[in-house]
Amino acid sequence: MTVPTLKEKPAEAEVASHELLLRAGMMRSFAAGIYTLLPLGERVLEKIEDIVRAELNKTGALEVVLPTLHPGDPWMCSGRWFAYGPEMMRLKDRQGREFCLGPTAEELMTLTVARTAPSYRDLPVNLYQIQTKFRDEIRPRFGLMRGREFRMMDAYSFHADEADLDTTYKDMHDAYLEIARRCSLETRVVEASTGLIGGKESHEFMVMSEVGEDVLVYCPECAYGANAELEQHKPAGLFGGESSGPLEEVHTPGMVSIEDVAGFLGTTPRAVLKCVMYVAGSDLVAVFVPGYRDVSESKLARALGTEDFHVMRDDERERFSQVVPGFTGPVGLSGVRVLFDAEVKGAKGMVTGANKADYHYRGAEEGRDFNAEPVADLAGPVEGDLCASCGEELKIARGIEIGHIFKLGLKYSEVLTAHFTDKDGHPKPMIMGTYGIGTSRMVQTVVEQHHDKFGILWPKAVAPLPLEVIVIATEGGGQPEAAALIVSKLADKGVEALVDERDVSPGIKFNDADLVGLPVQLIIGKKLPASDNVELKIRYTGERRDVPVGEAIGGIERALEEAP
After folding, report:
1. Which long-range contacts (CB under 8 A, 24 or more apart) does 388-393 make?
2. So what's the pLDDT on residue 239?
3. Pair 204, 65 in one domain
4. Statement to judge: residues 186 and 328 lie in one domain
5. What are phi and psi of 167, to 5 degrees?
6. Is residue 381 domain-resident?
7. Can you give the CATH number for the domain in which 179 is found?
8. Are the beta carbons of 385 and 190 closer than 8 angstroms?
């Protein structure tokens, strides 16, 4: 019952780390996105959270405990009660007052500090908590990666000026990197969108993984990195044809996709100008990007100055009859707001829509046939883009976000009247930062980055236990007695062991030991009576060595020192 391993892959498991945590008896599911951590899983979480505490405490941050149940009034005051939408889990008490289960805690922490009425002499202050959070995800998936109930460290710093915020922000940035290093996670820091949290600047801490839900762009030659929502690139000059030629109208019956048009006209998406129609308020906006790229809606939001827009729906076509969806192009287009990606400027030899059904233009040239104004960075990245900082080729990868830090500025302190008294005796709103780490997500991220075909490869810093003792008893062989003595001596040294004395075959024990993945295995079996030896195995490397039973304690200590 302590470690209820599973032989077969559970049907709910979508990625390797999710499967292994379930099969290794570390957790079980109650509902989509809601999990129980079993004893070994809880120990991993505890190890990670201890590392988080230690590194945050070094920065001078102080731990507190906020309520999990948040009154609705502060959220309404900040404007996020409705902005959060259906992800927020709301409820009412018996008096009909609005509450929510906290998805984050900017409002409550801001009010907590504000009620102390601090002086500038009391600042900065940085408070954090490690607590369960709740978000009603539309699509919980990948186990602990995206759950509806999860563990999270969230910290909030308060400052008298921007320079002081910059100092704490740098301290937290460095602490996050050290937390990741101690947890054996290879991490890249990227610029990121501030989203619903808000603020003027933020950075994500990403663990590269094919199962990651985020796309990041980074330069292997310099320090540049950004979430795909914010990335900046220099196009490699691949858009358009080699020359223009005359503008020619071509019949393209039923050809609406970029790939179909390119194939029909004997060219590639790199020569086709894509148009995506958006509705922003009462306006129709035609957004033109190279055919081999997608529109970045985060970048488009910045260009439009609003996030209130959507791709034009079929039921809106009659309302905007001045365009022909699938055949819209910039040549002669009128009555529509237009935006062009910067890469379109100066392009020649393009294929564009001809603004009538079943027709395209071939040979279009920007500056001659139409003017690409206004321009902005509107398109997402592709392989081959160049770094805007150093000119080297950028890399595109998927990543798992384990942490996120924000410079909030005055977003919450102004609306919640969170003031401090300055040197002149005047009240001023405190300048804030906020910082989050998904500790339960890190449990699974470690497994995603550290496993093989046999099971988990726990780094010893976060392993639930350092050692598994596998007892293969033979009649009169003395294996159980030797195991009990070794385990007792290890306990005296503060080393806990998982002991497998089940009445099952050796093969099952060995397979389960590799599945659970503790750093070192001690096998007490037939070698004991035959040669007075026991066997040590370092799980991460697979190295095996025989050790006299009388030297087992020293051998275990050396093996643990060598284990990653």
Report:
1. 388/224, 388/232, 388/233, 388/234, 389/219, 389/222, 389/224, 390/219, 390/221, 390/222, 390/224, 391/234, 392/219, 392/220, 392/221, 392/222, 393/236
2. 85
3. yes
4. no
5. -65, -50
6. no
7. 3.30.930.10
8. no
Q: Are 371 and 222 in contact (CB under 8 A)?
A: no
In a domain, 195, yes or no: yes
Q: What domain range is 502 assigned to?
A: 465-562
Same domain, 203 and 270: no
Give the residue carrying structure tokens 């100008």: 273
Task: Indicate whether 409 and 513 sit together in one domain.
Answer: no
Helix or strand holding residue 130 (H, E): strand 125-134
- Tokens matching residue 26: 């570390």
State what percent of residues in the chain have pLDDT above 70: 98
Ordered alpha helix ranges (H), 468-532: 479-492, 506-516, 527-531
pLDDT digits (tens, 9 = 90+) for 1-47: 589 999 999 999 989 999 999 999 999 999 989 999 999 999 999 99
Q: Are 256 and 115 contained in the same domain?
A: no
Question: What is the CATH number for 518?
Answer: 3.40.50.800
Measured between alpha carbons, how far is 37 from 54 in angstroms, rounded to an integer? 23
Residue 244's alpha-carbon distances to 208, 275, 327, 330, 352, in angstroms, are 42, 20, 20, 16, 12
pLDDT of residue 250: 95
Q: What are phi and psi of 81, to 5 degrees?
A: -60, -40
Find out whether 420 and 119 touch, Cβ atoms under 8 Å.
Answer: yes
pLDDT of residue 36: 96
Residue 367 clears pLDDT 70, i.e. is over it: yes
Q: Which residues pair with 561 in a beta bridge?
A: none
* Across 414-433, average pLDDT: 94
How many whole angstroms separate alpha carbon 495 and alpha carbon 510?
21
Distance of CA 129 to the CA centre of its chain: 20
Q: Are residues 337 and 289 in the same domain?
A: yes
177 inside domain:
yes
The end-to-end CA distance of the chain, in Å, is 29
CATH of the domain at 343: 3.90.960.10
- The reply to whether 91 and 222 lie within a common domain is yes
Decide if 280 contacts 304 (C-beta within 8 A): yes
Residue 505 lies in a domain: yes
How many domains is the chain partitioned into structurally? 3
- Torsion of the alpha carbons at 32, 33, 36 and 38, rounded to the nearest 10: 110
Tokens of 469: 């003792």
- Residue that is last in its domain, among 447, 473, 488: 447
